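Box 3.1 A note on notation
Throughout this textbook, protein chains are presented in two layers. The first layer is the amino acid sequence; the second is a C-alpha cell string describing backbone geometry. Keep the layers aligned when reading.
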Amino acid sequence: MRILATLAMLAVFAIGTSGTLAARPQPMRWSAYYWPFPQQPVEQQTPVGATQPDRSLWIVNPYAYPLPQSEWCVWDSDDRIMGGFGGIIGPGVTVSGSACVILDQVAHEAWITVSDPRLVGLVTVDGVSGQCVFTPEFDNDEVSDLPEIEGSNGGHGLKTAITWSIHNPTNRTIRHEIALTGIEWQTTVEPCGDLQS
C-alpha cells in the first residue's frame, strides 16, 4: 500500500517541480510538501492518551504551530513529514535537508526513495543511517530520565535532527531527478516495509 502512496507522491512532486525546472534548471534542494501541524497532545506521554479531556494534564509539543514550520518537531506518534528533493545535482555533490524530531518511547520510520539509480540516498537520525531506519526508541521506564522538554508541561525526550541526503557519485550532472523523503509512525516490523520490495 505504501509503495502506491509513494508513487502518487512522486507524481505530485514531479508535477509541482516540472514547470519551474523546465523554465530554468534549478539546483537540487529539499523541501517539505506535506507537513501537517504537529498534533496535540503528545499522546504517548499524556495520561489516557489523545482522549484526555483535561487539558491541564496534556503533554504538549512546544515546537509546533504558531512557530514557523522550520522550527517544528516531530514528536507525537501520529506526526509525519513528507518531502522531497528536486532539481539538478552536479558531479560529486551532496545535497541535504533536515528536520527536528523528539525521541522517546515511540519509534518513527524515516525513509528516502531515489528515482535515479545513479544517485545515492541516505537518511540519518541520531547516528543511525540507511535508506530506511527506525528512530531510536527508549523503554517506557527510561523516558523520565531523558531531558525535560521545556514548555511541554512535563514531557521528556531527546531533541535531535533527522537528515535526508542525496549524493551524486558520478562525474556527470544529473538533471531533473526526484527523490522522496518521509518520517512517520512505525507501522512495520522491518524498516521501510514494502518500500524495500
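The beta strands are 29-34, 73-74, 81-89, 94-103, 108-114, 120-125, 128-130, 132-134, 158-167, 174-185. The chain has two helices and ten strands.
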